[in-house]
């Protein structure tokens, strides 16, 4: 979601109606726009990423006008013109595509100019993925000598005065010193040539996606006509962007002129603001929504979302780039009707439910252990390598995360006992005896599985108090195994976390299911524990598999 | 209650304490005269207070104890006396005194200070400091000094006299001699009811305290009355073993979906991006793939992709819509990105896997899961990096949006939320998409609890092999249950504090 703030006075004028804060909240959310509040003349919204056309006040007002039934969808005429942008083959490797427009008859005010700058910036951060996918430049038309060229040059051949700088800088200086260069310079890091828009007089308009020039790139309230370009890596994306921006300025009275983008012998006129035809079937919409709209009803509802119907086709405005499939129009229909008009219903179709047997088994085991007076814990799967290994005096391998924000949680646990040691440490200030158990997934490397990591359900139990010992913890385990009718043998074993001679492995047949023992004083000290601890680590999934046989 | 009946409720401890209260007021005093343990006296006073026979007030009181040196001098004698005795009428150097008396340097210095103050020694500076007793010394040695009388007292000492306090002030200046502790002393006073009861006499009532097997066997219980209990008195708490409260809520949620005829899904938390994102038509340049949002794994950083046919269909859906009737994202799809292992960011990854396994003969079908999901967040009161999602899908040629609303409304009603509304929203994998909101009666506002929608054809066609409606939702479990448990800080859910685990209320929906 992207947050936008508009001038309420201007938005009221664009909408042609005044709404109370409550009405704003209700109407906007019914349309799928988050209303954030009004402060003075500032009115704020949250816009979903599929609707970049709502990031300008004119675009938002346009959508709401239709939704509230104020006026009909309008057409977006584009005037023919002789403006030309010549795309040089040198940009093919750095930033191959551009789409452009010229808009005249604009009357910028402080508010509308502020909105245009915000619109451009929000498009950059959202749809353009921080200028990585595409970037937008706006220039006063007056200073430009046509035709404009879009080309790429070696950095050492580039020098111009960027916006907000006092003198001409080299391309390298711009990347190193200018705020915009520092912020977006990484996008040109691997390029041996940098893209430029240059006019016929040789003046640099801009170096996309970094910065405009001070000479030809500063729009003010005195500017009446502008040249707009979008450059990027995807022709469709830059064409959509220019359509969205042109439509927004046109809604404020601007006159749109075509620019011919010439790429070798290919010539494409942009922007294209003709609606796009999509096949649409009312029956499909009704089946999806569980409704019974007639074709005229559906057509009236779609009109409120800015679409026009023509037979079995719906004409979708060029700025509605989110429409990929007929289903998108079904949603528009439902929004226009109001989600609240769709009545909840549960179909009477018999279905036989199944619980996941391992989860059910897990809960049965938890019942048994809670019956013994133990408290169940619920701990994170994320932990640290240190807690899984060094603090336990053990050296097992742990699946580490690549990018955790938190050093205390930089790995996935491979066993449960450390999680319970953490719980004991946390509860040191409470009275003893303390007896806990925890059931959860543990992660370990496994070549057989899809990700190379397997997850197994494990159980750990701890008892801690001045007399906690091997006998007590094994009693707890045997109680559980007896009730499950599992016969286990206990054989002496060694474990780095356990006092030598006080560790056992529980075997069912030949399959080891658990480790039982008294935790080594070194382990207790590293966890800062002052009471003896006896514990169990049990492979619950192994036990489950055995029981199902 | 009449005096006789009241007397019959008295516990043996109360019977001993009550008469003692006529003359004594502090716990220490009562302990002394009754021979009871301190805890017993305190307990009896508590019960008597409950019966309104005694009122107990707390007064701060100074309590004097002998410290290490004080205790030693009590047996060995004061150092200044040993100093004076060692002189034995002669003038001696400090070394000689030290040898004879066995006093430490510190004690020697302290003794000189005290004895000079009392005018019992004279000092002369030679090569060494020479000490000689004065004329008064032998008379003084014959008497008991006030400090010595003080040492003989019963410690801990409270309620000091003016004389005692003067000596205490001196002794406090000496090293590790005495300690003074401010203790809150309980003072018990008989209430008018108590006075009357004691005056009337509590009688030498012989009662049965505890019914024993012996009394039962002999029938002797018939000969004596049972002591009456104060059944309204507070009693100590006991604690039981319990399942974790979040798991209890989770069980309830599982039951709701099973009751509605849904089958449970399970699957790994670590998934390839293919299942978590690509199969769900999340574009490859979507911010959800960025490092700050999703946990990636160091090794193995990548996994393997499913069948080539499925991968091909997903690739086509992304690039141009394939056979789904969509135009797709119109940008190239990279299989390497789909191989990256991630901790699942939503349980919808399980839904995608379930759809891929489903056969036409299984339809219609309904599935649910309650599972952990992960987001690369810094832990704070409203963000967890691990939490639970309640996932559901309905695959049915006749399914429609009304059913989606119906299932969710039913679920939230069973969770205690009567008012639910759907607000248009956006997810790359559903269309229509909605945010589910419930009315929060305490906050008096709509609260977002999850997302829902109908899977796009770009999702269902590659996974199922054909496009049929699949209703889908993912609800945040923690948000739904914190209100019930009255928890504002999400971290409280997984803190595992002993007191909280014991005392938190049971799930009784």
Please provide a written account of the structure.
The complex is a heterodimer of chains A (549) and B (509). With 549 residues, chain A is of the alpha+beta class. Chain A is built from 16 helices and 30 strands. A seven-stranded mixed β-sheet of chain A has the order 13-12-11-8-5-16-17, with helices on one face. A seven-stranded mixed β-sheet of chain A has the order 21-25-26-30-29-28-27, sandwiched between helices. Chain A has a five-stranded mixed β-sheet with strand order 4-15-6-14-7, covered by helices on one side. Chain A is elongated. In chain B, strand 3 and strand 4 form a beta hairpin. Chain B has 509 residues and is an alpha+beta fold. Chain B has a domain at 246-267 and 345-503: Bira Bifunctional Protein, Domain 2 (BirA Bifunctional Protein, domain 2). Chain B has 22 helices and 14 strands. Helix content of chain B is 39%, strand content 20%. The mean pLDDT of chain B is 90. At the A-B interface, helix 2, helix 8, helix 10, helix 11 and strand 21 of A face helix 14, strand 6, strand 7, strand 9 and helix 19 of B.
Task: Please specify the SSE layout and strand pairing.
The complex is a heterodimer of chains A (549) and B (509).
Chain A: E1 2-7, H1 8-15, H2 21-31, E2 34-39, E3 42-47, H3 57-67, E4 78-79, E5 84-87, E6 97-104, H4 110-125, E7 134-140, E8 148-153, E9 159-160, E10 169-170, H5 171-177, H6 179-184, E11 194-198, E12 204-207, E13 211-212, E14 226-232, H7 235-251, E15 255-257, E16 259-263, E17 266-270, E18 276-279, H8 282-289, H9 295-304, E19 308-310, E20 313-316, H10 326-337, H11 357-371, E21 375-377, E22 382-383, H12 385-388, E23 399-400, E24 411-412, H13 417-426, E25 434-445, E26 453-464, H14 470-483, E27 489-492, E28 498-508, E29 511-519, H15 521-526, E30 533-539, H16 540-548
Parallel strand pairs in A: 4-15, 5-8, 5-16, 21-25
Antiparallel strand pairs in A: 1-3, 2-3, 6-14, 6-15, 7-14, 8-11, 9-10, 11-12, 12-13, 16-17, 18-20, 19-20, 22-24, 23-24, 25-26, 26-30, 27-28, 28-29, 29-30
Helix pairs in contact in A: 1-3, 3-7, 8-10, 9-10
Chain B: H1 3-8, H2 12-20, H3 27-34, H4 38-50, E1 54-66, H5 68-76, H6 79-87, E2 92-93, H7 94-101, H8 105-117, E3 121-125, E4 129-133, H9 137-142, H10 146-151, H11 162-172, E5 178-190, H12 192-200, H13 213-218, H14 245-259, E6 263-264, E7 270-272, H15 273-276, H16 308-319, H17 335-339, E8 341-343, H18 348-357, E9 365-374, E10 386-395, H19 401-414, E11 420-424, E12 430-440, E13 445-455, H20 457-464, E14 470-476, H21 477-485, H22 498-503
Parallel strand pairs in B: 6-9
Antiparallel strand pairs in B: 1-5, 2-4, 3-4, 7-8, 9-10, 10-14, 11-12, 12-13, 13-14
Helix pairs in contact in B: 2-4, 6-7, 6-8, 16-20, 18-20
């Amino acid at each position: 979601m992207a947050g936008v703030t508009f001038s309420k006075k201007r938005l009221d004028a664009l909408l042609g109606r005044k709404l109370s804060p409550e009405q704003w909240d209700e109407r906007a959310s019914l349309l799928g726009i988050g209303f954030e509040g009004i402060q003075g003349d500032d009115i704020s919204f949250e816009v979903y990423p599929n609707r970049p056309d709502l990031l300008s006040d004119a675009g938002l007002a346009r959508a709401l006008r239709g939704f509230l039934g104020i006026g009909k969808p309008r057409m977006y005429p584009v005037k023919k013109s002789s403006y030309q942008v010549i795309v040089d083959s040198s940009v093919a490797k750095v930033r191959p595509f551009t789409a452009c427009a010229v808009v005249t008859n604009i009357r910028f005010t402080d508010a509308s100019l502020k909105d245009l700058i915000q619109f451009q910036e929000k498009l950059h951060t959202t749809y353009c993925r921080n200028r990585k996918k595409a970037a937008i430049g706006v220039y006063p038309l007056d200073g430009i000598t046509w035709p404009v060229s879009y080309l790429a040059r070696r950095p050492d051949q580039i020098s111009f005065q960027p916006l907000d700088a006092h003198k001409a800088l080299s391309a390298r200086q711009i990347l190193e010193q200018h705020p915009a260069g520092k912020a977006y310079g990484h996008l040109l890091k691997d390029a041996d040539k940098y893209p430029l828009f240059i006019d016929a007089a040789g003046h640099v308009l801009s170096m996309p996606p970094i910065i405009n020039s001070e000479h030809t790139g500063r729009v003010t309230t005195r500017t009446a006509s502008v040249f707009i370009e979008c450059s990027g890596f995807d022709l469709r994306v830059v064409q959509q962007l220019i359509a969205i921006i042109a439509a927004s300025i046109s809604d404020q009275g601007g006159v749109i002129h075509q620019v011919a983008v010439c790429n070798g012998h290919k010539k494409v006129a942009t922007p294209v603001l003709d609606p796009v035809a999509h096949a649409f079937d009312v029956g499909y919409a009704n089946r999806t929504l569980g409704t019974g709209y007639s074709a005229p009803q559906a057509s009236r509802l779609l009109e409120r979302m800015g679409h026009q119907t023509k037979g079995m086709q719906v004409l979708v405005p060029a700025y509605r780039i989110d429409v990929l499939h007929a289903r998108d129009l079904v949603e528009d229909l439902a929004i226009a009707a109001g989600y609240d008009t769709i009545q909840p219903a549960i179909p009477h179709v018999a279905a036989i439910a199944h619980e996941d047997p391992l989860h059910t088994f897990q809960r049965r085991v938890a019942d048994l252990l809670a019956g013994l007076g133990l408290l169940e814990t619920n701990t994170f799967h994320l932990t640290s390598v240190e807690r899984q290994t060094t603090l336990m005096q053990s050296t097992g391998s742990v699946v580490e995360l690549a990018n955790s924000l938190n050093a205390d949680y930089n790995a996935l646990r491979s066993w449960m006992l450390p999680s319970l040691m953490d719980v004991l440490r946390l509860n040191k200030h409470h009275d003893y005896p303390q007896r806990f158990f925890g059931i959860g997934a543990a992660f370990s490397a496994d070549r057989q599985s899809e990700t190379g990591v397997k997850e197994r359900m494990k159980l750990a139990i701890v008892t801690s108090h001045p007399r906690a010992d091997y006998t007590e913890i094994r009693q707890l385990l045997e109680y559980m195994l007896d009730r499950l009718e599992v016969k286990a043998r206990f054989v002496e074993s060694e474990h780095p976390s356990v006092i030598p001679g006080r560790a056992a492995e529980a075997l069912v047949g030949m399959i080891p299911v658990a480790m039982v023992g008294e935790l080594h004083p070194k382990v207790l000290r590293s966890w800062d524990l002052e009471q003896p601890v006896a514990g169990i680590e049990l492979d619950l999934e192994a036990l489950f598999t055995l029981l199902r046989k | 209650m009449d005096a006789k009946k009241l007397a019959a409720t008295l516990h043996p401890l109360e019977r001993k304490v009550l008469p003692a209260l006529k003359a004594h007021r502090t716990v220490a005093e009562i302990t002394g005269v009754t021979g009871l343990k301190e805890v017993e006296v305190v307990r009896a006073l508590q019960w008597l207070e409950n019966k309104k026979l005694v009122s107990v007030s707390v007064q701060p009181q100074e309590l004097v104890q002998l410290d290490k040196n004080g205790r030693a001098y009590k047996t060995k004698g004061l150092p200044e006396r040993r100093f004076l005795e060692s002189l034995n009428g002669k003038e001696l150097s400090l070394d000689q005194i030290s040898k004879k008396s066995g006093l430490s340097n510190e004690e020697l210095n302290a003794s000189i200070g005290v004895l000079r103050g009392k005018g019992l020694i004279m000092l002369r500076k030679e090569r060494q400091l020479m000490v000689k007793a004065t004329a008064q010394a032998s008379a003084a040695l014959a008497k008991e000094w006030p400090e010595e009388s003080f040492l003989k007292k019963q410690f801990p000492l409270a309620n000091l006299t003016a004389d005692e306090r003067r000596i205490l002030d001196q002794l406090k200046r000496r090293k590790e001699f005495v300690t003074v502790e401010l203790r809150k002393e309980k003072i018990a006073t008989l209430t008018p009811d108590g006075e009357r009861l004691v005056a009337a006499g509590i009688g030498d009532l012989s009662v049965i305290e505890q019914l024993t097997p012996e009394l039962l066997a002999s029938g002797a219980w018939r000969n004596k009355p049972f002591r009456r209990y104060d059944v309204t008195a507070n009693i100590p708490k006991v604690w039981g073993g319990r399942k974790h409260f979040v798991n209890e809520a989770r069980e309830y949620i599982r039951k709701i979906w099973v009751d509605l005829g849904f089958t449970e899904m399970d699957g790994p938390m670590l998934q390839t991006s293919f299942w978590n994102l690509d199969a769900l038509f999340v574009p490859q340049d979507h911010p959800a793939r960025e490092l700050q949002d999703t946990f990636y794994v160091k090794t193995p950083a990548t996994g393997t992709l499913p069948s080539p046919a499925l991968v091909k269909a997903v690739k086509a859906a992304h690039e141009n819509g394939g056979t789904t009737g969509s135009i797709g994202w119109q940008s190239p799809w990279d299989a390497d990105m789909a191989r990256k292992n991630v901790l699942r960011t939503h349980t919808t990854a399980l839904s995608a896997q379930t759809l891929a396994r489903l056969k036409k003969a299984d339809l219609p079908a309904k599935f649910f899961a309650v599972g952990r999901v992960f987001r690369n967040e810094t832990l704070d009161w409203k963000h967890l990096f691990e939490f639970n999602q309640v996932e559901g899908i309905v695959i049915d040629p006749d399914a429609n949006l009304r059913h989606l609303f119906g299932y969710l409304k039913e679920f939230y009603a069973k969770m205690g939320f009567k008012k639910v509304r759907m607000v248009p929203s956006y997810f790359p994998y559903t269309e229509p998409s909605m945010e589910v909101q419930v009315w929060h009666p305490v906050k008096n506002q709509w609260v977002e609890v999850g997302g829902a929608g109908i899977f796009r054809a770009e999702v269902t066609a590659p996974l199922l092999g054909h496009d049929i409606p699949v209703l889908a939702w993912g609800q945040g479990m923690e948000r739904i249950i914190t209100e019930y448990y009255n928890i504002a800080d999400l971290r409280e859910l997984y803190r595992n504090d002993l007191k909280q685990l014991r005392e938190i209320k049971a799930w009784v929906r």
